[in-house]
Amino acid sequence: MTDTIYDAIIIGGSYAGLSAALQLGRARRQVLIIDEGLRRNRFAAHSHGFLTQDGVDPAAIAANARAQVMTYPTVRWLSGRAETAQPLPADTRTKAWFKVTVADTLYLSKTLILAVGLRDILPAIDGLAERWGKSVFHCPYCHGYELNQGRIGVIAGSELSMHHALMLPDWGPTTLLINDAFEPTKDQLASLAARGVTVERSPVQAVTGHADVQLADGRTLSVSGLFALAPFEVASAIPHQLGLDLDQGPLGAVIKTDPMKETSLPGVFACGDAARAMASVALAVGDGNLAGTSAHRFLLSEAISHG
Ligand code: FAD
Ligand code: MG
Fold first, then answer.
1. What pTM, to 2 d.p., does this model score?
2. Is the distance from the beta carbon of residue 81 to the nearest atom of ligand 1 less than 6 Å?
3. Ligand 2 center from residue 197 Cα (angstroms)
4. Does residue 41 line the site of ligand 1, with CB under 6 A?
5. Hey, what domains does the chain have and what are their CATH numbers?
6. 268, 239, 267, 241: which is closest to 253 by C-alpha?
């Protein structure tokens, strides 16, 4: 066990976690950031849509953020995976409320901020995973513009892919690859036709080359980029260990929070992709800012009530 009792332990040191740390570091609070370095966007070479950083390497944005945050002397960084996080029994809560383990070391803290992100569960199509973030994407706003109005393929995962198929014509002529995932209704076919979307029924066998879709009937559909909706899961078991309430959405569950990013367990905050239905670097940074100030507010109120 380490001697320090942190004001906040932040699990996940990417955009959301670092943004929370910045607020707390600026309040001169003792902060430990634990991060294992598996950002969700690590597969992409360029990040788009975040003001002042448009087109920048997402690793460079994270490194710059980390460098700025680590100039605050009360903020510490620990590379590694937080394995467990638990509340301490109520009668021992004199100074610390939570314990977190990394390898065999125990860390104590008054608050926890979960900024653990999400893990995408990619469709099991040959060649797709290698192209994730390079020529296969899920977010049109992030990567659509760079396709330069070339042809786009949407690989359906379920009826939810209608949403992708109807959006993407704003970025380029679009083909919806049904891939046996659902059968569009008459109305859906009419909406697709109205947006000029081509419907392809031959199942997808593999993706090769840049984005060459190999169809079961032997044809190849070569496109500038592919979009696929991937289900996701919170990238850590810690929310489950803590028994936090979740918000179930069509593609997966995220941690439920109030508007100030406090979870169902007092003193535990969550921010970024792990705690919101809509995901982006900008939203993760905004969320982290809220979670950091919210944790600080909690510390102030606890100091008043516990002395
Ligand atoms: P993440 O960046 O995913 O970071 C979570 C961190 O927590 C990771 O470092 C992880 O290792 C760590 N962690 C998790 N569990 C533990 C644990 N138990 N112990 C220690 N550390 C832990 N968004 C945009 O705005 N623009 C884009 O162009 C864009 N492109 C994308 C491209 C791809 C291919 C993908 C998949 C996503 C893209 N996104 C983009 C979305 C963007 O990646 C996320 O919105 C953003 O990364 C969320 O930040 P975060 O801090 O919440 O989580
Ligand atoms: Mg983070």
1. 0.96
2. yes
3. 37
4. yes
5. 5-119+231-305 (3.50.50.60), 122-228 (3.50.50.60)
6. 239
